[in-house]
Amino acid sequence: MRQFNYIFKRMIQMIPVLFVISLIAFFIIRLVPGDPARLMLGEKATNDAVAAIRLKYGLDRPLPIQYLKFMRGVLHFDFGNSLKFQVPVWNLIVSRLPVTLALTFLSTAISLLISIPVGYYSGTHKGGFFDRLSNIWNLTAIAMPTFWIGLMLLIFFGIVLKILPVGGIGGGFWGHLKSFILPAFTQSLMTSALLTRNIRNAVVDIISQDFVDFARSKGISEGEIKNKHILKNAMISTVTLLSMRMAYMLGGSIIIESIFALPGIGKLTIDAIFARDYTVVQAVVFIFAIVVMVINLITDVLYSILDPRVKY
Amino acid sequence: MKKKFVTGKKVMTLLLSAVMIFSMTACGSEAPAEAAVDEGSTEATKEAEAGTENVSGEAAAGEMADSITIVRTADAAYLDPNAESIGGAEVMVMQQIYEGLVKSSLDGQSIEPCLASDWTISEDGLTYTFHLVPDIKFSDGTPVTGEDWEWSLLRARDTETSAYAFIAEAIDTVEATDSQVVITLKQPWAPFLADLCNFNMVVGCKAYYDKVGAEGYNKAPLGTGPYMAAEWVKDDHITLEANPYYHEAGYPKTKQIVFSVVTDDNTRLMQLQAGQADIVSEVPLSMAPVAEKDENLNFQMFDSTQQRYFILNTTKAPFDDIKVRQAFEYAVNKEELAQVIAGEYGKPAASIVSDTQGKWCDTDLQSAAYDPEKAKEMLADAGYSDGIDFTLTIRSGSDIYEQMATLIQSEAKEAGFNITIEKLESAAVSEKYENLEHQATILMWIDDIVDPSGVCGWTVDYDQCNGWYTGLNDTALDDLNTQACSELDETKRIEMYHDIQQKVHENANVLPLFSNGFAYASGKNIEGLYVSPFSVLDCKELVKTK
Question: B347-367: per-residue pLDDT in tens?
Fold first, then answer.
């Protein structure tokens, strides 16, 4: 019950934060030079045509009026129409968000599948051959540029072996899955390296602590010590790191989406920024802010599950 | 044991979540809300799928593939020719869907009949009478009427928010029957026939527009072209199906064309190498040698009217001084620039009009050879013996512009011009030069029509864009351009345009740098790929052998 109260309180606290974010999302893109009407029409447009566009989309109205219109729309879950695509912004986001979510989710899953066993084993065998190998691999994965790894993987699996598609989203469940393997793996590389290092260091720290020796002296099985005492404690800082990486992957998916030709939210956002598609930019910033806040909330709740000492 | 079960349950939850998200992705990509296609078009698509007499018999025989995928950098935003935002991505698709009275030949040298079999022009140059090809139908089977022609051409002129309404500006009245279209102009307008080849001077279906409205028409338009829109997943792909009512027997040769969006240059080429795509448009010049060397690909460089220009703002020092502008031409090594950027496909340019425009280009005009010493002398004569500092504003994120700016910077330094390169995001750059806040920038031009009036008007007609963002208002030159547009004697017109090119060269406010072709790569099994100098890709000839 206390946890539900906490979640409720946190959700109430989100309201003023969202208000500030709405102000930032709305005004920051308008502070940047560049006229969406001119960009829509292109260089060959006459001034009359530009004026007609500004009038048509209400871009000639005072900014506070435009902001109030935006906020009224938000309260009705209506983000307006994209200036560039002329379709509801919500439709654009709904058709692209699943791609980015799937990419983030799969990357996270791959990262955890790699980092937990590797990090744990390295930590428990500190200084050994495997630990040193894992350190070299982690440094390499962090140092290699994402776009380069992506291209190399595409060449190898798409052109040389021809077993995976060269970009695109594919058709049907298996088609989608095949298309997501390479981008998800590419995106997971840095996250898995960071998580592995974090878990390994946490495990090294925990296994030398008294409570582990105490647990052993009580005759608790090695399996239980591993799962309940070492790994669970090592996951506390890992969860924080993971939540930050997930937020980063959601927002920073543009490179992956571009290399692997995935129609995700990152590409939509960057195109909207270049085209000064105000309605899309403000909606994406707003929705992303909500997603990141939810991730943070889940992280905080997870703390109390992993560490009973954390009370809300 | 219990622990293992709990772990297993977590793994199951993880897997189920993955399945759910993938299902969401499937829904998102296969049936997005904005990909709606009109019922009429869907009906016509079904007919096309069922196979019609129009589609080549050879394709039906199974020797040729049914579908060709063209990968390109960007998706269209609109498919209505009078929509607000029309660029190369839109035009490439619309050219397959719509047709006009006439069209430019593929070599870009002449004007050919299209939906008009022939035409007459009155002696005063005011009345154009076009005789229509009989029994033309839209892709849903609706016959094209005189009302459709009147509506389409007047809409091209009167849509205030269209960036290309100026193309139809000369039209006064349009009177059409089912067999002919009579257009009366406000005043004699020599480029009018060329203007009619532009992508927005095409026939659309009025009744269909009235039924579906502007939004519906944008998504699934109705034209008489070889293809019709069948599916559109925005920012991902547009699928066109053969128009079963197309008027040229045996065309289009392939049933389906897919325009797929892949923004990354490397991935586009790799998709072609992997056989996932059939044609890559806009191969970056830097990657042309890679595509050319690949034995499994066909690399083609088509003649184009594409040129790049150095734009000097004459309202600001130091380029308010004509001597400084003229000196600067000797400070730029166009040969080297063309060679480094476009390799063997680059050609230094002397005139603002591309030499691909044939007779319209003044080939007598010679480009100044790189001569830093002469540039220094000219600068000293102009009172700048210590050299000149200025800022070159270019858009960031473009390899070509960054490369060009760096090369020009090092070349001009020898001549006493110290250039600071300012890289701004494209919207910020355009706002800067539109307000004449820049000192110099680099821009590009591709002609839309078989006539020099486009680029010449853009350069000297001050009202259009402040003399191509140079701020130079040469009224005598502006008048000459107006006369050239209304002069009906072609020989005199050619002389006038040569004169304009000469005078722009003397003014030295717009400095042509170099031209290059349109680079395309395709699979070895693709035939019939041809791109005109105006970037028109006619898909109806395309064939893919199995």
Answer: 999 999 999 999 999 999 988
Cβ <8 Å between B161 and A46 = no
What's the CATH code of the domain at A209? 1.10.3720.10
From residue A180, give the alpha-carbon distance in Å to each of A176, A245, B31, B292. 6, 19, 19, 31
Distance CA B184, CA B337 (A): 46
Query: What average pLDDT score do residues B310-327 get?
Result: 96
b/e B86-104 (16+ beta carbons within 10 angstroms → b): bbebbbbbbbbbbbbbbbb
CA distance B493 to chain A (A): 23
In angstroms, the CA B498 to CA B521 distance is: 35
Over residues A165-193, mean pLDDT: 90
- Tell me what ipTM this predicted complex has: 0.77
What is the DSSP secondary structure assignment for residue B115, as one 8-state letter?
S
Has residue A250 been placed in a domain?
yes
| Option in A173, A261, A263 nearest B267 (CB) | A261
Residue B416 and residue A240: Cα distance in Å, rounded? 57
Quick check: helix, strand or coil at residue B359?
helix
Give the residue among B177, B179, B171 at the shortest CA–CA distance from B128. B171
Where are the domains positioned within chain B?
Answer: 31-283+520-544, 307-516
| A107 falls within a domain | yes
Report chain A residues whose CB lies below 8 A from the CB of B23: 173
Top CATH class, B31-283+520-544 = alpha beta
Residues in B closer than 8 angstroms to A165, CB to CB, are 274, 276
In this structure, which CATH number among 3.40.50.620, 3.10.129.10, 3.10.105.10, 3.20.20.140 belongs to the domain B307-516? 3.10.105.10
Q: How far is B162 from chain A (nearest CA, A)?
A: 6
Of B18, B263, B443, the CB nearest to A105: B18
How many other C-beta atoms are found inside a 10 Å radius of the C-beta of residue A24?
A: 13
- Structural domain count, chain A: 1
Examine residue A289 and state whether it is found in any structural domain, yes or no.
Answer: yes
How much is the pLDDT for B40? 37
Average confidence score pLDDT of chain A: 87
* CB-based contact B29 A95, cutoff 8 Å: yes
* C-alpha–C-alpha distance, residues B135 and B149, integer Å: 14
Instruction: Pick A86 or A296 by higher pLDDT.
Output: A296
| Structure token pair of residue A234 | 């090592």
Q: Please check the confidence at residue B399 and state whether its pLDDT lies above 90.
A: no
Q: Compute the distance between CA of residue B41 and CA of residue B141 in angstroms, rounded to an integer.
A: 10
Cα torsion B88, B89, B91, B97 to 10°: value is 160
Start-to-end CA span in chain A (Å): 10
The residue of chain A with its CA nearest to that of B84 is A41
Q: Which residue of B has its CA nearest to A46?
A: B464
Q: Answer whether A144 touches B (CB < 8 Å).
A: no
Q: Which of A38, A42, A52 has the CB atom closest to B160's CB atom?
A: A52
3-state SS record for B170-223: CEEEEEECCCEEEEEECCCCCCHHHHCCCCCCECCCHHHHHHHHHHHHHHCCCC
Task: Give the whole-angstrom CA distance, residue B352 versus residue B361.
Answer: 8
Query: Could you tell me where the beta strands, DSSP code E, fall in B474-528?
Result: 510-515, 518-523, 526-527
Q: Is B392 helix (H, G, I), strand (E, B) or coil?
A: strand
* Closest CA relative to residue B461, chosen from B446, B476, B451, B441: B476
CA dist., res. B13 & res. B142, Å (int): 55
Interchain proximity B164–A33, CB inside 8 Å: no
Query: Between residues 47 and 106 of chain B, which touch chain A (CB distance below 8 Å)?
Result: 77-78, 83-87
CB contacts < 8 Å between A and B, how many? 186
Task: Please check whether residue A244 lies inside any domain of the structure.
Answer: yes
Using the Cβ of B20 and the Cβ atoms of chain A, whether some distance falls under 8 Å is answered with: no
Return the H-helix or E-strand segment holding B184: strand B180-185
Tokens 């979640």 sit on residue: A7
**Alpha-carbon gap: A266 to the closest alpha carbon of chain B (Å):** 12
